Amino acid sequence: MEIKKIGVLGCGLMGSGIAQTAATAGFETIVCEVSDEVLGKGFAEIEKSLAKFAEKGTITAEHGKEIRGRLRGVTTFHELADCNIIIEAIIENLDVKRETFKQLDQLCKPNTIFASNTSSLSITEIMTPVSAQRKGRFVGLHFFNPVPLMKLVEVVRTILTDEEVYEEVVKFSAALGKVPARTSDKTGFIVNRLLVPYMLDAIRALEEGVGSIVDIDNAMKLGCGYPMGPFTLGDFVGLDTTYYIAEIMFNEFREKRFAPPSLLKRMVLAGLYGRKTGRGFYDYTADPKNPTPMNLQ
Ligand code: CAA
Ligand code: NAD
Hints:
single chain
């Protein structure tokens, strides 16, 4: 396989998990953030996750050392210039992603593959500022949270994706230990097309008084065998990210099922992003393992 050196842009919830997964699979991995402070937070999350794997005996102390040795954090794009693939996992905002890829296109080798971890933006729209040659080497690579545990990755082709590049990325996904699902550049791909309306419906059910946060969560968890109820999942994904995704999907499809409910908008405006800010549908500040439901009236 041609892919040996990996660049990851963003070391937040997803970027940190992607970088950890790539290094664990044996790839030299460089992860780029906006500042050393944010980078430090991302690396602290990687340490927590590696500690959990070590506790369970999934990795040995020696393996942990090797993984850390393959991971390097940087704060300038220049360091990504000679990567074979760059996986972007920054904020779900079209303008920011386009500007980022425009700069990377000028810096990177002509054969570097560009991949976006976007949840809902069109890959074709993100890649508009890059050169014609790079457009054939541009894919979506959509991971799931928490990346070190979730086995799926959606591999997204556009109408311009080179067939060989696509197959190379499918092979790379398997080398990361993931199961690739082949999909095309339709907003939300497979999973979010189905998952996002469900999560938004749960918020509408809460607004309409169908049940409380805890009862709706328990209903889906214990009644349907889902690993998390919709509000626990929303807090886990990030309510800011969920809101951006809903807005993008609603703009694309103009269907009510994708429209962000007003409660979600108010929560994001109030800074209640879920676990990452300590409060969302639940309050995690006193005891993160036993969060209490928020009063959102
Ligand atoms: N790294 C390493 N190990 C971890 C971990 C991490 N980041 N997070 C949890 N674990 C381990 C725990 O230590 C625990 O290990 P033991 O079984 O040995 O105790 C195990 O995983 C289970 O964890 P918990 O007991 O804390 O919790 P859980 O049983 O609920 O499992 C979960 C956690 C795997 C996250 C599970 O709840 C789950 O699958 N939730 C649904 C996640 C989901 O739907 N993700 C997709 C979100 S949508 C998306 O990502 C796409 C998008 O575009 C928005
Ligand atoms: P996050 O807010 O946790 O992390 C984003 C990180 O990107 C931040 O740390 C920020 O400092 C950094 N960043 C912003 N601009 C940057 C730049 N120019 N260069 C380098 N770093 C930059 O967000 P997240 O949840 O990790 O989401 C990232 C992407 O992954 C989004 O496109 C999102 O839609 C997608 N995604 C999210 C989930 C999820 O469950 N949260 C799942 C799959 C895909």
